[in-house]
Amino acid sequence: MTGQAPPPGGLPGSQHPVGGRPVRPAWGPGAVTGRWPRPVVAAPVPPLRRTKAAGPPPGTCSVPAMDREQSSEQSAPERPEGVRPATEAGAGNRRAAAQRQQMRQDLASAAMELFATQGYEETTVDQIAAAAGVARRTFFRYFRSKEEAIFPDHDDTLVRVADLLASADTEEHPLDVVCRGIKEVLRMYASTPGVSVARYQLIRQVGALREREIAVVSRYERLFTRYLLGRFDAAEEIPPGWQRGGDDDSMLAEVSAAAVVAAHNHVLRRWLRAGGLGDVEAQLDHSFDVIRNTFWATAPNGVRRRGTTVAPGATVTPVSSMEAAAVSALSASPGGEVLITVTRTDAPLEQVVDRIRAALSGSTG
């Protein structure tokens, strides 16, 4: 076709429809000479590119949008009411708590090792932090002093004990609840016998640590006293001889809480002196039995303290001479004198009661 002219009249206009009018050729006979405007040709439209949002490809089964939503809702597992899904924030909080607890343990271990090797007075906070691989300011994020580093678990244990008291069944005897609470403290020591024995030996040598231990113990005693007072206030029946809101409630609460803590300390120290050997929980259970029969078995006039009553004149048969002396002391005349007896904190309970019996015999003879 090169060098040959197109047929007269150019290409048929029907082959180039633009607006329904024939298009004049731009060359050869009949070419446009300016009388007609140059034809405007529309730009080609690119083909549509199919995406996932446009639906499934041809030939596949299509589900309407509403049906797909309903289908996904039906396939989702049902979640029990009140149960929230685990979130990254919750997992992060748990990791942070675990890391914080681990850091407290690392600092406490470093402090114990330094105290044992170079002495308590010679050890500084900077040395403890360096041994644990942290900065001085990091140490003070976890402990206020080097004395606190010896007792890293008591804060968490105190929280656990408080939760136990708060969740206890009101039908359970309040003294039994307190005994369960102090067992949490004992288990804290028993979980790491080696560390507990080393700490006990160190505390016996350093007066500042003994004072710190006394302060820690008093926190449990106050917690138990508040719990017992709350149970007494909520009691519907008050045995004869007791006055609601009087001195009897506060006296029994304080004495019972102090007795439980003292029994725990006595059993714990005996176990630590033995090198952390033996069934320490069984020993503590025995001391609880002594406390129940001493403080909660029988009051004057045969009234059972804070529980069911015993007919006047009835007696509770004690299971040991120690309990017999305790019941006898409780049955004494309310007008008697106050007796103060001094004894060692690590003395056996039987020896303490013997001293009290001897003192009572001497004062009345």
TrEMBL record:
Region (Disordered): 1-102
Gene3D superfamilies the record matches: Homeodomain-like, Tetracycline Repressor, domain 2
Signal peptide interval: none
Composition-biased stretches (Basic and acidic residues): 66-82
Keyword DNA-binding recorded: yes
Sorted UniProt keywords: DNA-binding
DNA-binding region listed in the record: 124-143
Biased composition (Pro residues): 1-10
The protein, known as: TetR family transcriptional regulator
